[in-house]
Design a protein that fits this description.
By secondary structure, the protein is mostly helical. The protein is built from five helices and two strands; from the N terminus they run αααβαβα. It has helices at residues 2-71, 76-101, 103-107, 120-137, 160-166; strands at residues 116-119, 155-158. Helix 1 packs antiparallel against helix 2 (76-101) and helix 1 (2-71) crosses helix 4.
Length: 167
């Protein structure tokens, strides 16, 4: 009888040990899930913060160019140049908005870079159009090397939106 009770106690202790181990494993899984959710939440917050800034830049450029146009309605050359710059900024803004709408790709971890033909000179000119206006509004002068001699291949395939975001 004493042997049977001892075996029963051992079996009970082993069962309790297995249960504790299972509970610890579940707690570990929950902790990992919490960390993953927190990381995803921080990534979303960072994305939204960056996009908010990225959207304001071309929008402020468009507003500034409109104000310049209102101040100089007789200068048709300036108005035409500003319209071209506004179109570049508006297209960039549209690209950013499309990127936001594809946020589900970020959530799933599948950021898809497009493979479109693009010209680095044209792309950099577009970026500079946006940035120059922003610099002027801040009272800064933007200086850069306008030479394209160092770029071996100007026509490439890539994701123009993501290259603009990097710039």
């Amino acid at each position: 009888e004493a042997n049977r009770q001892a075996e029963h106690k051992i079996a009970k202790l082993e069962s309790e040990k297995k249960q504790k181990k299972k509970e610890l494993e579940q707690q570990d899984e929950l902790h990992k899930a919490l960390i993953a959710a927190d990381t995803a939440n921080r990534a979303k917050s960072t994305f939204i913060l960056n996009m908010s800034h990225d959207i304001r830049t071309p929008l402020n450029g468009i507003i500034g160019l409109l104000e310049i146009g209102e101040a100089h309605p007789e200068n048709t050359k300036l108005l035409r140049e500003n319209q071209k710059k506004m179109k570049i900024s508006a297209n960039h803004l549209l690209s950013l908005i499309n990127d936001i709408l594809q946020m589900s790709q970020l959530e799933s971890g599948e950021v898809v870079l497009s493979e479109e033909p693009m010209n680095l000179k044209t792309l950099s000119d577009d970026v500079l159009t946006i940035v120059e206006q922003r610099a002027a509004e801040a009272g800064a002068t933007l200086e850069y090397d306008k030479s394209t001699e160092r770029v071996a291949f100007q026509n490439i395939y890539g994701s123009p939106l993501h290259v603009r975001q990097i710039f």
